Amino acid sequence: MAELRINSQAFFHNLKLLANHVGSKEKVAVVLKDNAYGHGLLEMALLCKEAGIASAFVKNEAEAIRIAPYFESVTALYGDVESKSPANVWVALHSLEQIRRIPKGRSVELKVDTGMNRNGIMEEELFVALEAIRAQGLILCGVMAHNGYGDELGSEFFSQQRRFEGVRARVEEYAREHGLPRPRFHALSSSGALRSRNIQDDLVRFGIAIYGYLCAHPLVVSEIGLRPVLSLWARRITTKSLPKGARIGYGGKSELEEEAKKVSTYDVGYGDGFYRLNEHHKLLTAQGERILPRVSMDCLSVVGEREEVCLMEDASELARLFDTIPYEVLTRFSPFLKRVVI
Amino acid sequence: MAELRINSQAFFHNLKLLANHVGSKEKVAVVLKDNAYGHGLLEMALLCKEAGIASAFVKNEAEAIRIAPYFESVTALYGDVESKSPANVWVALHSLEQIRRIPKGRSVELKVDTGMNRNGIMEEELFVALEAIRAQGLILCGVMAHNGYGDELGSEFFSQQRRFEGVRARVEEYAREHGLPRPRFHALSSSGALRSRNIQDDLVRFGIAIYGYLCAHPLVVSEIGLRPVLSLWARRITTKSLPKGARIGYGGKSELEEEAKKVSTYDVGYGDGFYRLNEHHKLLTAQGERILPRVSMDCLSVVGEREEVCLMEDASELARLFDTIPYEVLTRFSPFLKRVVI
């Protein structure tokens, strides 16, 4: 049966590098949204617990409930949260209307838009939002932003950071005035944190870096030795001896160029979240065998007869081939694929 | 909350068209593998039961067990099946080794490779396979092939069909000789069936066509009026009034060309199986608003302020944009997205 292997040593290695950079493990929060970027929500939550990580961020309430037992807090980045969810499931607030929908007593983190023009309240709504949170009886545990320019050259990253400093100052003052505990502040992504020397935030939400990747411009963040955590392995279904010229798969788009060869099919296809390689794409297995397009929904053909093949050990190559980023390659993997922690 | 809407009337309409073509509903089998091509395995199984469909084909044992109560037989196309699975879970056999792994008494369908050079036993292995099935005490309920050239011009489709006729004759003779019941025979895909006037097979495995698509060369199969079953809807998270020139999303790759506009974010991203549109792609919602790249993992931005937007009502457009086929666009949708049958 096909499986995704999760390399726990690579993961711990990445966490250690990131903790060293930000100064302490306590400052490291993990982003486990979207089934932990395809790595398996529960599997990664357990590894994080083993590593002593206290704070996680996930997609929504459903993901938060599944891993709440393993963290001090799990923040649902999208959607609302119902009263009956565990108390350590926090909710990120994106708009004034949303604040009014959250049941009294829930811990919340206020998202502020510092220039990405995407989610969160606008800076000019800050005071109204803080008042609404208090009026609604919510517990303001955090104030967050997201640096949408962390991967890019240019000044936008720094102007976003300065705006967040202004937000922090105003919230701190508001908390003092009203005798409220100071919430935690966090605005940096993986690359945002790694390009920053002096991090003022109380914690850093590390997403892609914990899984072993950075997608920043090379002048922005230099290589720090992260290791990819996930690899994709497929098992052999059948092997055939085929003559030169034999055509394989849908539309016979692959033609065997060599003299008689063994060709095998393996149990991974695009229905598992792998890409549908067609005749415009060239890709080898990690061991160097040719993957023969077209990939089917549930299987693919490879020249050779190994019992198992590694179809991917670094998402960067597929990302380049499909004009995208490793995030998309990783999150595509079907949750029904078995995850095996090694 | 974002959702996939399953148009039951479109689905019933497609089933009816296909039943008319093959002559009777009894000849229609449904391919519900890979979460019913992303449509939702359980939701589609229930609609099939309502329509009176008796035979289904799925990816593996896990899928088969989930929907076994709704069909006379459910065939797992890949992998093995354990003794404790319900008796109406049948298994497709791809190799001689696999035959020896299946527990005695299980109903099986033998897959024969008639020229796709992908899965199934070779024709020259047919007699050995039939003997092994009998020796192993398995119940041969079906013999199948797959027409890998159904979508293409050229003679390969017909030569595959002729080879399957030969296989059928040999198996029928073997069954007569050994006093075994005649198994069912099926080799055609959606386009293979629709290009055939006189179908000899006992049933036809309809996959993509039941969901409203055909991907065949237009000279091979003409338009028959199938209707797409699935559409993707997203809910508004926030709306902002942005000035001309405002930059939106990661790297600020979208710049607002118009005078001050409302721009909203919606709760679908590539983490849900939608595509990560980047600055090289142009796509509108079904209502005609611009989707602003880059799409994020959990959200995307659209010019406008509707409460909900339809991001896709026909997978063909996304398929063209990403050099693929509707199958891949559909099966990518996360099983965690809510399916709503309308």
Describe the structure.
The structure is a homodimer of 342-residue chains. By secondary structure, chain A is α/β, with parallel strands linked by helices. Chain A folds into two domains: 7-211, Alanine racemase (TIM Barrel); 230-313, Lyase, Ornithine Decarboxylase, Chain A, domain 1. Chain A has ten helices and 18 strands. Chain A has helices at 8-22, 33-37, 41-51, 61-67, 96-101, 126-135, 156-177, 190-194, 315-321, 326-331; strands spanning 3-6, 28-31, 55-58, 73-76, 89-93, 107-113, 121-122, 139-144, 184-186, 204-206, 230-242, 247-248, 254-255, 261-266, 291-292, 300-303, 308-312, 338-341. In chain A, strands 2, 3, 4, 5, 6, 7, 8, 9 and 10 form a nine-stranded parallel beta sheet that branches. In chain A, strands 1, 11, 14, 15, 16, 17 and 18 form a seven-stranded mixed beta sheet that branches. The mean pLDDT of chain A is 94. Chains A and B meet through helix 2, strand 7, strand 11, strand 12 and helix 10 of A and helix 2, strand 7, strand 11, strand 12 and helix 10 of B.
